Description:
Elements: E1 3-7, H1 13-23, H2 31-40, E2 48-54, E3 57-66, E4 75-82, H3 91-105, E5 110-116, H4 121-126, E6 131-142, E7 158-162, H5 171-182, H6 195-203, E8 214-218, E9 221-230, E10 235-243, H7 252-266, E11 271-277, H8 281-290, E12 293-304
Parallel strand pairs: 4-5, 10-11
Antiparallel strand pairs: 1-2, 2-3, 3-4, 5-12, 6-11, 6-12, 7-8, 8-9, 9-10
Helix pairs in contact: 1-2
Amino acid sequence: MTTTVRGYRPADAPAAAEAVRSAYPHLVTTPETVAWQVGRAPAGQCFRLLVAECGGEVAGVAHTGLVADAAEPGQGFCNPAVHPAHRGRGAGTALLAAAEEYLRGRGAVRVHAWTVDDGVSPGFAERRGYRRGRRSRALRLDLAGTPLPPVPPVPEGVRLCTAADLAADPRPLYAADVEASRDEPGDVAVGTIAYEDWLATTWDHPALDRSLSTVALADGAVAAFTLAHTDRRGRYLSGMTGTVRAHRGRGLARLVKADSLHRARVAGCTEALTGNDAGNAPMLAVNARFGYTPYLAEWRCVRDL
């Protein structure tokens, strides 16, 4: 059966979401998030969702584009996802080849791709010229059955609120996110994302639950935060947790995560997931204290075009 690669169509959203969930089960992916990413990606990202079709069915997809906030220009990304029912038929190879051709045309000199460490995907990438970079760990917490430690005492001069409380002016949260993201370990050095692009990719993300995203304010400024993504069906994902440099070492990351997890349990969330770079020892320790356990691992693979 012949596999063809084409551009995304709105009717593809449910099948595309199912393919991504099957390949990356630790993420929150819904038809709404698929459609949103296609429609709201920043112009500088040159985002495209490629679809592999086999026998009239969506066999898989590939998210591809440029890393818009990379400090070094020419950094592209491609994350293929093929549904298990269609694997081994060339869909992944076709998607990767089409994505690389597209990225070359947009001036990319390097491609970054996430591969789940499942004993198959890393080898698939290496046979196509990719080399392994940093390793990431996805962790899972049974919110319904695992006792949570209590929320730590709030330090003097610190006040907790939610991202929803900042809806009138989220710019302070944007500034804290930019600063914290620069210090996250990773293969791509992060620059500064424009505020309008941050609004589109982070603040307006359809999975972002602002009422479950906790923010710590110190003297009125954002000192720490955790962004919560949910599928509104019981799954909770930590989108990003960060502390600005001036307030690190005070336990604020643990404080905002604890508050958010307790809120999530009250809201009916039953499963919590998070991901950390394997070298991010402080956050791995924080998550271990909450009872998170290993779920899966990923490799960040890279290829020079």
